[in-house]
Amino acid sequence: MTHVFHRHLRNTPPVAVAASGMTLRDAAGREYLDASGGAAVSSLGHAHPDVLAAMHAQIDRLPYAHTSFFTTEVAEQLADELIRTAPEGMSHVYLVSGGSEAVESALKMARQYFVEIGQPQRTHFIARRQSYHGNTLGALAVGGNEWRRAPFAPILTPATHVAPCYPYREQRADETPEAYGLRLAGELEAAILAQGADRVIAFVAETVGGATAGVLTPVPGYFKAVRAVCDKYGVLLILDEVMCGMGRTGTLYACEQEGVVPDLVTIAKGLGGGYQPVGAVLAQKKIVEAMSKGSGFFQHGHTYLGHPVACAAALAVQQVIHRDGLLAKVRDDGIAFGQMLRDEIGNHPHVGDIRGRGFFWGVELVADRGSKAPFDPARAVNALIKKDAMARGLLCYPFGGTVDGRQGDHVLLAPPFIASRQDLQKIAALLAESIDAVTRAAAA
Ligand code: PLP
After folding, report:
1. Residue 404 pLDDT > 80, yes or no?
2. For 51-323, CATH number?
3. Which InterPro entries does this UniProt record tie to the protein (predicted)?
4. I want to staple 100 with a disulfide (CB 3.0 to 4.6 A). Which of 95, 134, 140, 274 is the partner?
5. Residue 272 alpha carbon to ligand 1 centre in Å
């Protein structure tokens, strides 16, 4: 009997006891190849010596100091490093303990910005369906899965949801990708006008949709058109790169590939690579200036802001990524990985779509390839794949996103950047075995 309040209350997962490189081991001695970096967290794999050394040194020097009294050298160094490598225009870093805290902080920064500049009537957020931004109440409100919001709907911040960029299901046959992107930006504009152009705080979107969407990569020009719509109405653009940022798609920020700079960008997961809970919001100068010239105070805060050991871990992770040329590796090996997946499962009758960038790939499973009909959610295909893959020694991140208004089945692959081509090939082959075994049984 466990006293840990596990999320799934009817079953207890295996006990992890050790991890190194691409592999985790459980108490029964079983080994697992990490194909998802946890939940797209681990970028350097497990027990990287340089990160462990940086953490140990920080613990010996200064394990904790509260931000009401002090800043720390390591927090300042991390912020400098993040701004040095951030998209042009970002000026300040707000350091928190994870993704939901980062999103929550960004939503409040955006709201307070408008209060400071004399537009307090802006109270509404616009976000996208099939998105995930975290589980705290603000982040949940902008999140795009109705079934997640449902129990909490009466107590959520006001938010409207527009279509995600989801070409596999929503681009029309007679539409180019560019025309599709413009149509979506038009839908955003209509949603802003429906609320009242001066009532909207921000449009919130993952640059590359993650867990609940099975990796949704934007079509060319979509984010440029979105940025133009936001600028037209003075609406802020918040990009959530908690999952897709920090090198996961082959550039440090996924928005670099879209040619847009958001007003606020959230990061977490890959920032600390799993070594410590850490997240951040990067803000453009105008946001920080409005607060510094106005109230002089951001009305927010958490006890573990800028925790020194978390900052030391994040700084070491970022330094190793650059020192070891891992962004270029992710770009090159990511192309090869996509091809391996297409070779292994591209023709499988229950694989509807394979999409991704860098080391961030999604596989969408369908009951019928022709009609794209999802499996009956009662079949729990995604949960069965997770179980089957674990039995084969593979950790992947299957998820029930929302397909046609109900839960569908996706598998998310986000290996650590250190994965060798042999590791990637093994991931593709083991996943193919699992998909085949589970979907055949589900279709029978
Ligand atoms: N935003 C995105 C895009 C995410 O994928 C997640 C987590 O999966 C979050 C926010 C929430 O992060 P956390 O689980 O660290 O609170």
Report:
1. no
2. 3.40.640.10
3. Aminotrans_3, Aminotrans_3_PPA_site, PyrdxlP-dep_Trfase, PyrdxlP-dep_Trfase_major, PyrdxlP-dep_Trfase_small
4. 134
5. 13
